[in-house]
Amino acid sequence: MTSYRKHNESFFDRFDESYDEILINDTSEAKAFLVEEGINPDNDVELRRKLFKKLEFKLSAIRNKQRDDELIEKAFEKLKAYIDKNKKLSGEGLKNLLHETAFAYQFRNLEKLDDEGLRELLTEIDLVKLLEEIDKTEES
Amino acid sequence: MADSKIYVKGEELFKVFNSLPWDDLYIRLEAYIFNTLRYKYGVVKSNEQLKSKAHEIISEVMDLIFVTGTRNWCKESCPEFNTFIFGVVQSHIYDSFKTKNRTNVNTLETIEEGNKTQDSFQDTISNDDLRVIVFNELKNLNADDDELLVFDCMADGIIKPDKIRKELGIEASLLNNILRRLNRKTSKIKIKLFNK
Q1: Are B32 and A45 within 8 A, CB to CB?
Q2: Dihedral, CA atoms, B145, B151, B153, B159, nearest 10 degrees?
Q3: Does A70 contact chain B (CB < 8 Å)?
Q4: Residue B31: which of A11, A34, A45 has the nearest Cβ?
Q5: CA quadruple A51, A52, A58, A61: dihedral sign
Q6: Contact criterion met (CB < 8 Å) for A23 and B63
Q7: Per-residue DSSP letters for A82-122?
Q8: Predicted confidence (pLDDT) per residue in B127-152, tens digit
Q9: Among the partner residues A37, A55, A62, nearest to B34 by beta-carbon distance
Q10: Biggest alpha carbon–alpha carbon distance for chain B
C-alpha cells in the first residue's frame, strides 16, 4: 500500500499556515475573527491592561535586583581594592559609615572579612554613599 | 557544544517590553490561540473558557520570555520579535498538548480519537483524491465561488496570502474574509474526514 501521509499532512497544513500568517500580522483581521467567534476585544481593555501592569511589576522587580547586584559588585571591587591597598580601613568617614550602617559588623575586623562576608556586608549599607566615601578617602 | 547564539537580554529586553504595541499584540495572540485551539486541535470548549485559556497562555509565554528568561530571543535567527513570540506560543501549545495527561492542560478536551484515525486515513488516500473530496465537502458546506477559487489556488500550492492576492487580483481585506470562512470550513472537513 502506498503511503500518502506526508502529502496529505501538508495538504491541510497549507490552509492553517495561510490564515495563521494573517492572524499573526494583521490586528484588524484578528479582531474580525474574534468578533465572528463571539468575542469582542473592545470589552477586554481592562483585562489586557491588568496583565500588562502585572508583567511590568515583575519586570521592574527583576530590573531593580539586577541594578542592585551590579552596584554591589562595583562597591565590592572598590572596597576590596581599597582594603588591599591600605591594608586597613583608615578613612574615618568610611569606617564610620560601615560601623554606623552595618551594626552587626561594628566589632568585627572589616579587613579580615572574606569575599563572601564583604558582599554580605554590602547588602546592608548605602552603596552610593559608600562609593562616595571611598572616592573621598582616596582623594584626601 | 556551547551555544554561540547572541540573545537579547537585560536592558535591551526591557526596551523590547516597553515598546510592545500591547493591545494590538494581545488581540493577535488571543485570536491566534483561539484559532489554534478551536480549529487545529479541535478543542471543544465555550468561548469564555477558550478566552480564559488564551489569557493564561499569553501570560505564561510573556513570563517565559521576559521574567524567567526560559525562552530567549535571538535576533540573528529570528529578526522580528513578532515572529518570535508567535513561535513561542505555537510550541507552548504543542508542548501543553504533548504533556496534557501529566500537567496543566487536562482542562482541554481534544479530538483525540480523530487524531488517532488521521494516520490510517492519510495512509490510504492520494493528494489528488483528497483535493476532490475536500472540494465537494466545501460545496456541501455552502462554500461560495470565492472560497472555492481560493481553495483551488491553495490546493495548487499557492499558500502565501500575498501570492494568492496577486494570483487572483483581489484586495487584502476580501482575501482575509474568504480565508476566515475557508479556514473554519476546512477545519470542519478535516475533523469529519479524520473521524470516519
Answers
A1: no
A2: 140
A3: no
A4: A34
A5: negative
A6: no
A7: HHHHHSS---HHHHHHHHHH-GGGTTS-GGG--HHHHHHHH
A8: 888 999 999 999 999 999 999 999 99
A9: A37
A10: 55
Q: How far apart are CA B64 and CA B73, in angstroms?
A: 11
B24 touches chain A (CB under 8 A): yes
A19 in reach of chain B (CB within 8 A): yes
The reply to whether B81 touches chain A by the CB within 8 Å rule is: no
Angle at B175 between CA A7 and CA A16, to 5 degrees: 30
SS3 A57: helix
pLDDT digits (tens, 9 = 90+) for B43-55: 999 999 999 999 9
- Chain A positions touching B86 (Cβ under 8 A) are 24
Residue of A nearest to B188 (CA): A12
Q: Do B17 and A20 touch (CB under 8 A)?
A: no
> For residues A85 and B167, what is the distance between their CA atoms, to the nearest angstrom?
77
Give the type of residue at A8.
N
- Residue of chain B nearest A47, judged by CA positions: B55
Residue B122 has which C-alpha cell? 492519510
- Residue ranges of the domains in chain B? 7-99, 105-194
Alpha helices (H) along chain B: 10-18, 22-35, 47-62, 81-98, 112-124, 127-140, 145-155, 161-168, 172-194
Contacts 24+ apart (CB under 8 A), A107-114: A110/A83, A111/A83, A111/A87
pLDDT tens, position by position, A79-135: 888 777 776 666 666 677 677 666 666 556 666 778 888 788 787 778 877 788 778
Residue of B nearest to A65 (CA): B10
d(CA B15, CA B62): 14
